Target: Pyridoxal 4-dehydrogenase
Amino acid sequence: LPEQEAFDIEYWLLEEAKLQRMPKPKSLAGRVALVTGGAGGIGSATAERYLSEGACVMLADINPDSLTATEGVLTQQFGEDAVCTVLMDVTDENAVAQALAETSVEFGGIDILVSNAGIASSAPVEETSLDLWNKNMDILSTGYFLVSRETFKIMRVQDMGGSIVFVASKNGLAASPNASAYCTAKASEIHLARCLALEGSEAGIRVNVVNPDAVLRGSKIWEGDWLDQRASTYGTDKEGLEEMYRNRSMLKRSVLPEDIAEACYFFAAEASAKSTGNILNVDAGNVQAFTR
Ligand code: NAD
Model:
């Protein structure tokens, strides 16, 4: 090659290499996400994932102490401007409307909702009181409805589409022993997501579901009554339960909050632009495996 031409080629390669080394723009930069149950294990992991991609996040939760603690950790990492908190009970219609309005005012709108606030309960059906049944329906089924309804209102006014992610449960697809109220409420979340996906489609509002298998580490659900009840149902302790779930799964791996956060990120990101009304089981292959 003539000397000048060889130099041009090398210069071109250098420019290419430089482009590859430049920091990529963050995929959720400029987006606003509301995460209910944001002070819990899965909620805070999801908030962290979104923040790492440049989103601003409003953490909404009923537990003030956990909210303050989570906010402290996340603001240290991502700065005060990116994280806010709001006390909110998802079963309280007015509180939900107010929290959503606050989020819009604070950050200028809402692009992503992660409906995740929840509980778990276990009792044989004969011992399931109407109160326990209603509690599951109120927090899980009605709570997901109320937060979605207010989010729809805001997203429609914004007219920029949006993404709603429901953290439901594999127990919304498959029965689990002594948990009829919880399983039925989770199943209703999944069907609500399908209905909302259809309703939101023309406005570009996507609604998808992430179904975790048991996530024992980091989750407060697995520190209280649910742990005792599950332990007595299966005759083992927390470590034994984690091992049991791992061994039942095809991949023989435990599911962690970060795994659920990654699925929630997928449904918020451009990569899932053509997915709505879908369910992603993050279960290491448990739902489809007959290994009971
Ligand atoms: P977690 O207890 O760590 O977090 C749940 C959060 O929801 C808590 O911070 C709690 O204060 C909040 N919350 C409860 N009731 C509320 C209400 N009425 N209003 C507002 N906030 C409320 O539990 P997690 O494991 O992070 O669970 C998150 C979601 O994942 C829940 O919907 C749960 O049912 C679902 N899920 C969890 C598992 C698991 O094994 N951890 C498995 C499947 C599905």
Q: What stands out?
A: The mean pLDDT is 94. The first strand starts at residue 32 and ends at 36.
